[in-house]
Write a structure and sequence with these properties.
This protein is of the alpha/beta class and about 375 residues long. The protein has 12 helices and 14 strands. Bound molecules: 4'-deoxy-4'-aminopyridoxal-5'-phosphate.
Amino acid sequence: MTPPTVAGTSGLPLRPELAGIEPYGAPQLDVPVLLNVNENPHAPGPAVVATITEHVRAAAAGLNRYPDRDFHALRTDLAAYLRVESGVHREPEQLWAANGSNEIMLHVLQAFGGPGRTAVSFAPTYSMYPEYARDTHTDWVVGRRAEDFALDPDHARDVVLREQPSVILLASPNNPTGTALPAPTVEAVCEAALAVRVPTRDGDAPAVVVVDEAYGEFRREGTPSALELLDRYPNLAVTRTMSKAFALAGARVGYLTASRELVDALRVVRLPYHLSAVTQAVARGALAHAGELLAQVDTLRAERDATVAWLRSLRHPDGRALEVADSDANFVLFGTFADRHAVWTGLLERGVLIRETGPDGWLRVSIGTHDEMRAFRDALVEVAGL
Ligand code: PMP
């Protein structure tokens, strides 16, 4: 008798494309200085904690019921926040929220990607993008960024017109490089996307462009937000998160704004009640203190600029200057090291955890408090002999 067929060695019928793949995520280590996942180093203050606690207590008393599936109150608060932060007027129906902007983008791929369709981005970029594509059976194609990590609009247009994708993902500021896109580049991609013809049930439609502004609030003076382009491009969506500038990574709240039609398409693919009553309560409690939570952004931006300047003043033992990418985010990519793993390990041995990511030889450091950055500088000088 022939033995029953099993997939791989585990005896589970794992999808072949998942075989041997490790779950995504940076190491979570217990060290004094955590500068590896672009968190905000400032914990919420007592007033914020008190309001969040009140909101959660009220929600707890109703936890026998499912939450508001469409979280109308939260969408209204998010629209009000964007009006204050970026001066854009958005209706609650033009907002969407989920458990982190990661889940938002998965919703986008679930609604607009799928078998026989293609998603496009430009590398190096956020390493979760190909995972959304994989998990939604969407083909994944990457164009390239230039040496300085900028995106050449002509190259972007060529890739979009050639690939005819249904979704284009642009991180701005980009992770892991910190690069923000100038408005004309985003416009060029939106124009190219409008010329794409994705077959649909009723004929065809242009591509959706997602500008992922997870780090938007950290952009430097004069750097625009794609929020300003929403009125001109019906196929544009902008995602943001409360994880970074808002210092609320533990709450898992991301959001998107786009046309009502686009948001309604996301409502079709979300799981019912995907945003728990507790999450909604925490997010609304935090939004009531937006000013206080965002107060540290300017300090972090100044610390970021000082870190860039300091790294640029350094030389390797062989006399080469360090390379440091311009950053509009709360992290800095720098290098290049012949053995970046040795530098990363040396820092870790001194209690400083950064991230081994980006093109070969580069390392990424998240911006922490002034004291944490001093610890990083001291450790780096020692480890790399700078
Ligand atoms: N986009 C980018 C570019 C990111 O770097 C991250 C987090 N590292 C996210 C989206 C997702 O963040 P969250 O799910 O916490 O909103």
